[in-house]
Amino acid sequence: MTIRVLVADDQALVRAGFRGIVDAADGFTVVGEAATGAEAVELARRTAPDVVLMDIRMPGTDGLAATRQIAGSRASNSSAGEVKVLILTTYDIDDYVYTALRAGASGFLLKDTPPEELLAAIRVVAAGDALLAPSITRRLIREFAARPAPPVCEDPYTAAQLATITEREREVLTLIGQGLTNSEIAERLFITTGTVKTHVGHLLAKSAARDRVHLVILAHRAGLVG
């Protein structure tokens, strides 16, 4: 299945570079280019891409505002899934990361990411998972680990999110909160990677978390990770 990609960046050369990388790879196609956030929102509605590569700093409607309008919205084609947004920026700034995640972005990478890693990231995001640049992931986990988490009983929303999960799913959630991958979790719990994926899917559904990054946040809020 071909992954349909929309490129949004205010610099024509940057758009051309990303288009060249994506179009040259098997299983990918660029369905459009946008120079502003407003154009990205309109094109996303018209072309129903699987993934939008979104710059942050653009004139008028910036990438964060555009992400908020695009992420999670249904394309006009009823058979299409949710449009995923992968932020690509030059600026490794924490406020951007947090705002992008709150806006619904599924990934956050820096523009100096090698082409093969960019393509791998697009695949991950298109498949419904979340992905952050390694340096950003480490900082995110450190920040949440440094915050004293209230007991679950003092956080009604978190308690509601965890109310229906099984003990095994709680174990998986704890390991997700520690930053482990599916294969590492499978090793730790002596189960298959496929079983881990099933548990992750159940956690996403039961907690109404958007993606894996939000499961990390949930694990820290719940006090499962010390």
UniProtKB/TrEMBL annotation:
<feature type="domain" description="Response regulatory">
    <location>
        <begin position="4"/>
        <end position="126"/>
    </location>
</feature>
<feature type="modified residue" description="4-aspartylphosphate">
    <location>
        <position position="55"/>
    </location>
</feature>
<dbReference type="Pfam" id="PF00196">
    <property type="entry name" value="GerE"/>
</dbReference>
<dbReference type="InterPro" id="IPR058245">
    <property type="entry name" value="NreC/VraR/RcsB-like_REC"/>
</dbReference>
<protein>
    <submittedName>
        <fullName>LuxR family transcriptional regulator</fullName>
    </submittedName>
</protein>
<dbReference type="GO" id="GO:0006355">
    <property type="term" value="P:regulation of DNA-templated transcription"/>
</dbReference>
<dbReference type="GO" id="GO:0000160">
    <property type="term" value="P:phosphorelay signal transduction system"/>
</dbReference>
<dbReference type="InterPro" id="IPR011006">
    <property type="entry name" value="CheY-like_superfamily"/>
</dbReference>
<dbReference type="InterPro" id="IPR016032">
    <property type="entry name" value="Sig_transdc_resp-reg_C-effctor"/>
</dbReference>
<dbReference type="InterPro" id="IPR000792">
    <property type="entry name" value="Tscrpt_reg_LuxR_C"/>
</dbReference>
<feature type="domain" description="HTH luxR-type">
    <location>
        <begin position="158"/>
        <end position="223"/>
    </location>
</feature>
<dbReference type="InterPro" id="IPR039420">
    <property type="entry name" value="WalR-like"/>
</dbReference>
<dbReference type="InterPro" id="IPR001789">
    <property type="entry name" value="Sig_transdc_resp-reg_receiver"/>
</dbReference>
<keyword id="KW-0238">DNA-binding</keyword>
<keyword id="KW-0804">Transcription</keyword>
<dbReference type="Pfam" id="PF00072">
    <property type="entry name" value="Response_reg"/>
</dbReference>
<keyword id="KW-0805">Transcription regulation</keyword>
<dbReference type="GO" id="GO:0003677">
    <property type="term" value="F:DNA binding"/>
</dbReference>
<keyword id="KW-0597">Phosphoprotein</keyword>
